[in-house]
Design a protein that fits this description.
Blueprint (H helix, E strand, L loop, with lengths): L2 E6 L7 H4 L8 E7 L3 E8 L6 E2 L5 E12 L3 E3 L7 H12 L3 H4 E11 L4 E6 L8 E5 L2 E5 L2 H5 L10 H10 L13 E2 L4 E6 L5 E5 L12 H17 L8 E4 L5 H9 L4 E6 L4 H13 L2 E6 L4 H8 L19 H7 L2 E3 L4 H5 L6 E5 L5 E7 L5 H8 L13 H6 L2 E3 L5 E3 L2 E3 L2 H7 L12 H8 L2 E2 L5 H9 L2 H6 L2 H9 L1 H4 L16 H15 L18 H8 L2 H7 L1 H6 L5 H12 L5 H11 L2 H8 L1
Parallel strand pairs: 14-15, 14-17, 15-16, 17-23
Antiparallel strand pairs: 1-3, 1-10, 2-3, 4-5, 5-6, 5-7, 7-8, 8-12, 9-10, 9-11, 12-13, 18-19, 20-21, 21-22
Helix pairs in contact: 6-18, 7-18, 12-14, 24-25
Pfam family, one: Asn_synthase
GO biological process, one term: asparagine biosynthetic process
Protein name: Asparagine synthetase B
Length: about 600
């Protein structure tokens, strides 16, 4: 699913300009459903049967994928020949709106209850397919695209400076907040009801993420992890769709390839046949998959800058839409793209705030020692962050964050409108709950480009991650242990970046990892064809700016915008770029600035 725009109250058909941010490319099917008090417009790649209507003529749209239902026993959606909306309709007929509580999904659902004259929007537990909304004089506008929503004539895009500062500092906005007043994200794990005659909106939270560790052995969690991984792939065994996998030289995606036993195509994104690409090719060969290199063109970053910012929702930067330019090919060659995204986040220490150690020539490394987070000061210290130099009269980022942080009776804390059970739960989950808090656009770009499946976002994996003690998150590796159990052959291939085999055990793997990184950085000479090509899957974007020198053109064509936007310092923006070109590392700040400058909403704001 690409996107949806909905309007309640007095509705008019949208203009082509309004729809532009909703559509990823020109290959979508656009469908419009109009009633007296409701308009729902969808853009999808390929044909769609949405909306699916129930016997009572209620209409259902599903954006994303429903994997199953967790009731007295787990119900596998793939046992029947259902589309996602057909399966949602079956659950709705059987359980009413309570279907949301058992829904195992990476999806949002829109449901028009015709006889009750109301609209219902259901989000999955993590909010993996965010829905944004704004109340307007005669109803509500909602969309999967912030910029589509802001383009509606009844929505006034006034800047919320705290939300904007958060985005500029962290490439994300906490909780349900956005950089615009009156525009919010529907909470994860929620059922939102909109009364169509009045426009009244009611939000019910049906689920909250909490850390609840079990005092069990590491082998217990490895066994549960392996069993679950085998189960989620077995559930799709009779699915006749064509599957491909996005394969790296690391552990997460090769583990999925080992568990799948038969994914025929493995894609690897690279600039050249680097060490990472050769490792991925070796993994694919041993797993019996057809290795296909997605070789980026030299102007890949510039192409992303031209296309991506108008589709973004203020989580991440434009240069993280890594598969842009290959999306049509992937949609043609496979029906579902499998990714190992969030495996490291939920199972390899990515959740736990830890101390960083500066090792000089090796760089900064994360230690397997958890930070204590028992106060707001402790949380803010662990979060870090600062505003870029080109922000006009910047406040302290700590003061911005404190304004949206509230401790509550009983030890819970609210941040950006989302309640967490404790400060430590906020420190653990704040970057991924809701998932729109993720500062990397990779996953969200994929959801617009192609039909993709990310197994580690399954409810059952999230529950397992929340039950695993911190010591196993930091000092053990359940992913590598599962890989060794499922495929000793694939586990014996060294990690492309570190050179360490996934079979290695803590603490020896840690010592070997950083020793290997030092050796490869300073002693091993693997010359790349171009200065900004790396040994890994990603380009050195800082070097790209210096070598290809497109940044000055971006600033020059947006010179009037730099001058007009009150939160930007024009001279400081040029100084930031000049300093980078002279050798400073301002990569993140500049790519964030370019993302903002190329978003249509800011040009609209400047025009006003």
């Amino acid at each position: 699913m690409v996107g949806v725009l909905g309007v309640t109250g007095a509705v008019e058909r949208p203009t082509a300009a309004l729809l532009d941010p909703l559509r990823w490319d020109e290959d979508e099917t656009v469908e419009t459903t109009v009633g007296d008090e409701l308009l729902v417009l969808t853009a999808t790649h390929g044909p769609t049967d949405d909306p699916v209507r129930t016997d009572g003529h209620d209409a259902i749209w599903t954006f994303g994928e429903i994997h199953g239902f967790e009731g007295e026993r787990y119900e596998n959606r793939y046992d029947g020949c259902y589309t996602d909306s057909e399966y949602t309709a079956e659950l709705y007929r059987e359980h009413g709106l309570d279907f949301a509580r058992g829904m195992n999904a990476t999806a949002s659902v829109v449901l028009h209850q015709r006889e009750r004259d109301r609209l219902v929007v259901v989000t999955d537990r993590l909010g993996t397919h965010p829905v944004y909304y704004a109340e307007i004089p005669e109803g509500v506008v909602f969309s999967t695209s912030v910029q589509t929503l802001l383009g509606h004539p009844d929505v006034d895009p006034a800047i919320d400076t705290d939300g904007l500062y958060s985005y500029l500092a962290f490439n994300r906005v906490p909780g349900v907040d956005t950089p615009f007043e009156g525009v919010s994200t529907l909470p994860p794990g929620s059922i939102t009801t909109i009364d169509l005659p009045t426009g009244d909106l009611d939000v019910e939270r049906y689920w909250r993420l909490e850390y609840d560790p079990l005092d069990r052995s590491f082998s217990y969690f490895v066994d549960r992890f392996v069993e679950l991984l085998q189960r989620v792939f077995a559930e799709r065994a009779d699915d006749d769709r064509r599957y491909g996998i996005l394969l790296s030289g690391g552990s997460d995606s090769r583990l999925l390839l080992a568990a799948a036993e038969g994914i025929p195509v493995a894609y690897h994104l690279a600039d050249w046949m680097s060490r990472e690409a050769r490792t991925a090719e070796r993994i694919a060969l041993l797993a019996g998959a057809d290795f296909r290199l997605l070789k980026r063109p030299d102007d890949h970053v510039e192409r992303m800058l031209e296309h991506v910012p108008r589709h973004m929702n203020f989580n991440g930067r434009f240069d993280q839409a890594h598969l842009h330019g290959f999306d049509a090919r992937i949609r043609e060659e496979c029906d579902v793209l499998v990714t190992g995204l969030y495996g490291d986040s939920f199972f390899k220490g990515g959740l736990v705030p830890a101390f960083d150690l500066d090792l000089g020539p090796i760089g900064s490394v994360s230690t397997p020692i958890a930070r204590e987070v028992d106060s707001i000061d402790g949380y803010l210290d662990a979060l870090g962050g600062s505003l870029p130099s080109f922000v006009e009269t910047p406040p302290l980022i700590e003061s911005v964050l404190r304004a949206t942080l509230n401790e509550r009776a009983g030890g819970s804390v609210a941040f950006g409108g989302i309640e967490y059970a404790s400060l430590y739960d906020l420190a653990l989950f704040g970057s991924y709950y809701p998932l729109s808090n993720d500062s990397d656009y990779h996953y969200f770009g994929l959801t617009q480009m192609a039909h993709q499946w990310t197994p580690f976002l399954d409810n059952r994996f999230i529950d397992l991650a929340c039950s695993m003690p911190i010591r196993y998150h930091l000092r053990r590796d359940v992913v590598n242990a599962a890989l060794s159990a499922l495929s000793p052959t694939l586990a014996n291939i060294p990690h492309a970046e570190t050179g360490v085999r996934p079979t290695s055990q803590f603490p020896f793997d840690l010592a070997k990892k950083y020793g290997s990184l030092f050796w490869r950085k300073h002693a091993v000479d693997e010359r790349s064809p171009k200065p900004y090509y790396s040994r890994g899957p990603w380009r050195d974007r800082g070097v790209v700016l210096r070598e290809r020198d497109f940044g000055r053109e971006v600033l020059d064509r947006n010179d009037a915008l730099l001058d007009a936007l009150p939160f930007l310092d024009r001279e400081a923006a040029y100084a930031c770029y000049d300093a980078h070109m002279a050798g400073a590392d301002n990569t993140t700040e500049l790519y964030t600035l370019f993302t903002v400058l190329e978003m249509p909403v800011f040009e609209e704001l400047a025009g006003r």
